[in-house]
Amino acid sequence: MKALSSLNLSHNQLSGMLPSEIGKLSNLGVLDLSANNLTGPIPNKLGDCFKMIYLNLGKNRFNGSIPKQMGNLISLQLLMDLSHNQLLGEIPSEIGELHVLETLNLSHNMLSGFIPSSLEEMLSLTFIDISYNELEGPIPKIKAFEDAPREAFTKNKALCGNASKGLPSCNSTTIEKRNAKKSHTLILYIVLPILSAMLLLSIVIGIAFIFQRKAMKKIETGQAERTGQTDLFAVCSYDGRVVHENIIEATENFDEKHCIGKGGYGSVYKATLSTGQVVAVKKLHPLQEDAEMVNKTHFTNEIRALTEIRHRNIVKFYGFCSHARHSFLVYEYLVRGSLAKILGDLERAIELDWIKRITVIKGVANALSYMHHDCSPPIIHRDISGSNILLDLEYEARVSDFGIARLLMPDSSNWTSLAGTYGYLAPEFAYTMRVTEKCDVYSFGVVTIETLMGRHPGELLSSLSLASSSSLASSSSSVVQTMMLKDVLDQRLPPPTIEIYGALVSVIRMAFICLNVNPQSRPTMKHVSQELSSQKPFSIDEFHTVTLGEFLHEGRVLG
Q: Which is nearest to 329 in space by CA: 411, 220, 408?
């Protein structure tokens, strides 16, 4: 199963050893084997899973030392959890190669010796727990260790270096002892290659090793996108009380002056945390007393699913708080705000030129394709609208607020009240009261037209609906058919250049197919994404003379 990207076998009763064949899953991004009865050593071959971003082997009975090959997992970002096992020996210095790792949990083992100084290079670390081991010596001088709670260091042999965490100051003897050990190790690394260079076979192995390290550096350069940024939300289940208090303080108990948007289910606040990180906090409106969660386990599993979803065009979900006074969800903060607000502002709309708008549309299509076809089970957004598409500093689109309605009220009897935003809903919803992935496709078509027109296409959609339900000779249909494409586009922008004619027409053509009143005739988002990625030729003369009627007719034929 070399195409497998996520494997979750946690909270079972699996026993025995983890087979070394796990290293053959070259595309594995998420591996969760926690809370089982797995024994034996952690296989070295696990280090071959170069694309892994999340690793949880906690709460098992793994023994032996931590393989130094774990340092090869240079894509590991969200989590490395080896806690609650029976691991022995020292923390390998190769762990310091995980430069984008955010959360490291090695607690409740039998690890000994000094913490490698190489961990000081892990600037992306935001959470660390090394409690309940036999570690000694100074802790690394990076923010993750300095800001960690006292509990993260408790029950060790002789750690030192942070008085505020209850650790004694490091005396010169302790530091010299670690430095002496580091020097001895360095000598071994220098002497052994020199001695082995006398053997031809060792020379060949050394050359191969050098080439391998160069290849690994290239991969690291290409994939390490986050360096040095402090992040309180690497894994939302850790230290929730501190995170909760930080958000309350940053928003001044959700003062109105920090509010940057309001919706049907909550208000969004901009919060600058004590670490300097800026996040968006969606505070949910309080539920009525009789609207309690039907299934708390289902709610928790859905939140967990959101944390595991990773796509460049989906807003990053950091965590949540379910509290008696106020519940909220925490996301990455996108500086340019929503697509709807940008289109509603003259200056910002002009800055969002044709190329940027086409890029935004393609990004939304890619996100929906991922949610419908690459997630298991598939995720139906239900509320694709200009307000739920956010843009980052580079105008890259992020789909937000997906699945929130289902998370809040999982009872199917309430489906209709949480189905989406008026003006973006598929027409069949009015008589079926049922939401499918084809509803997302229709909403995508609306957002696409809105992006190119610069405003919500309410009147145009009404005309299309009438045209679709009547003969082509009717007056309503005639009005639509004779509308010139160039006159419908956002007049605040200069006319599109020759270079983007093909892409622009391809986008509009696909949008009209998505707006087909017959759900079965709409394409899948995977098909839409693939079509938009291939630009088709279109002449200048055709662009200046084409009417909407041609797209309407083509949408029917293709349907």
A: 408
Q: Tell me how far apart the alpha carbons of residues 68 and 95 are, in angstroms, rounded to a whole number.
A: 7
Predicted confidence (pLDDT) per residue in 410-448, tens digit = 444 434 444 567 888 888 776 666 678 898 999 999 999
> Which among 143, 135, 214 is positioned nearest to 174, based on CA atoms?
135
The two tokens of residue 106 are 């090695």
DSSP 512-531: HHHT-SSGGGSPPHHHHHHH
Question: How does pLDDT run across 208-246, given as a tens digit for each residue?
Answer: 555 445 444 443 333 333 333 444 444 444 445 667 788
Residue type, 264: G
- Element holding 319 (H helix, E strand): strand 317-321
348 vs 490: CA distance, rounded Å: 13
pTM greater than the 0.85 cutoff:
no
- The DSSP result for 204-271, as a single string, is HHHHHHHHHHHHHHHHHHHH----S---TTSSTTSSHHHHHHHHHHHTTTT-GGGEEEE-SSEEEEEE
Residue written as tokens 């969760």? 32
Q: Which residues are catalytic?
A: 383
Give the containing element (helix H, strand E) for 366. Answer: helix 354-373
d(CA 164, CA 146): 9
Cα–Cα distance list, 25 to 32, 40, 552 (Å): 14, 20, 46
For residues 131 and 107, is the Cβ–Cβ distance under 8 A? yes
Asked if 365 and 529 count as a contact pair (C-beta separation under 8 A), the reply is yes
As a dihedral over the C-alpha atoms of residue 388, residue 389, residue 392, residue 396, rounded to 10 degrees, the angle is 160
109 vs 46, 54, 173, 377, CA distance in Å? 20, 20, 26, 35
Pick from 46, 83, 90: nearest CA to 64: 90
The pair of three-digit structure tokens given for residue 511, joined into one six-digit string: 């949008």
Q: Give burial (CB, 10 Å; 0-12/13-18/19+) of 467.
A: buried
Which of left, alpha, beta for 17 (phi over 0: left; psi -120 to 50: alpha)?
A: beta
CA separation, residue 380 to residues 315, 371, 439 (Å): 15, 7, 9
Q: Which residues pair with 285 in a beta bridge?
A: none
3-class DSSP state of 3: coil
